[in-house]
Amino acid sequence: AGVPAGPAAIRGRVVHERESAGVSGIPVVLYALPPDGVPGLRGMLTDETGAFRFESIANDPATVYLLGARYGEIPFGVRFSFEAGELERQIDLTVADATSDTNGVEVGEVQIEVEEGCANLSVRESHRLDNPGAQTIYIPEAERNGREPILRVTLPADASGLQWNIGDPLEEDGNALAFWGPLRPGQRKLEFSYQIPERAPAFEMRRSFPSGARRLVLVERPDGPTLTRSGTDDAELRPGDSIALHVELPAPADSVDRISALETRIWLELDGAALTVKQQHTLAIEGDTPLLSASGAPLLCIPLPDGADDLSFSSETLAMGLSRDVSGALALRGPLPAGETEISLRF
């Protein structure tokens, strides 16, 4: 779909950081994410002066735009929204040449967090890369054979459901992840998550670090799983090091006992080949205060049938922290108001 139509315009130039002249013939893409969640896309090439212009687009401040250009296999972009009443935005994109020399790059800090889900344990990791040089680092595909990437991460053997930010170009190879760039000067965090099966209340998870790390931080939430590492807590991880992480899951929170399911209603509508299901769940929350998951673990999970899609919720339901768990179920994390409350959904 195209970007939302409206009275505004975006104009600018693509300019090389070492030259004053614009870069001609560069693909420029405008990506729009409006409040209704239906994305739009429009593209064009820069003219002989490096200029581009997108006209007749919406200037709703709630619409988020991403303007991007690709130069030498490397994407450059900026994220923005219009101000209220703004009709034209000037944006100049600066592009630069890259190097494939990774000397000096280090993994500065790795953060690991474990969170309970509806059916599995969710592991979130953040790897900070430090590029002290003045150039963007990128290893083109033609040069990757026989070379180590900028970052390599080996996941547990039973990891599944790997997810990462669409802006982080990670390459998956079995139970390993590779990052080949681009890595711009300064620091960049690569974040991803995966699932491991539910285990005993206390277990060990082995983690290896092919690229090493200057510092490992084990993140813990109040009332959530606790993590400790083998060896010295602040010891630097050399490339290839492997350690054991001891994970201890908390006992079930007393707050879960405050939830009672009073009634569930289901309506079915058959329209052609599609079956629409509406559900309404009435819950009772004991006590005088709202109920909230401090650890991030679901307070309640609502299973969904295989193939359920086009999920929609009422605004009141969304405000109660309802989201899709990676297992496919709906996870409810609160806050849930004291007394009776209704959860409405449709798929």
Give a quick rundown of the structure.
With about 350 residues, the protein is an all-beta fold. The protein has one helix and 28 strands.
Secondary structure elements and their pairing?
Elements: E1 5-16, E2 27-33, E3 40-45, E4 51-57, E5 64-71, E6 74-80, E7 88-90, E8 93-95, E9 98-99, E10 106-116, E11 120-131, E12 136-137, E13 151-154, E14 160-164, E15 170-173, E16 176-179, E17 186-197, E18 202-209, E19 215-219, E20 226-229, E21 241-248, E22 259-271, E23 274-285, E24 300-302, E25 312-313, H1 315-318, E26 322-324, E27 330-332, E28 339-346
Parallel strand pairs: 1-7, 1-8, 9-12, 10-19
Antiparallel strand pairs: 1-4, 2-3, 2-5, 5-6, 10-11, 11-17, 13-16, 14-17, 15-16, 18-21, 20-21, 22-23, 23-28, 24-27, 25-28, 26-27
Task: Describe this entry's structure for a reader.
The chain is mainly beta and 347 residues long. The chain is built from one helix and 28 strands. The strands form eight sheets. The chain has a five-stranded mixed beta sheet with strand order 14-17-11-10-19, with no helix packed on it. The longest helix has 4 residues, at 315-318. The radius of gyration is 24 Å and the shape is flat. The chain starts with a strand and ends with a strand. The relative contact order is 0.12. The mean pLDDT is 89.
Name the quaternary structure.
Answer: single chain
Mean pLDDT: 89
**Structural class, please?**
mainly beta
Radius of gyration: 24 Å
Count of runs of 4 or more consecutive helical residues: 1
Distance between the termini: 23 Å
Query: So what's the overall shape?
Result: flat
Number of strands: 28
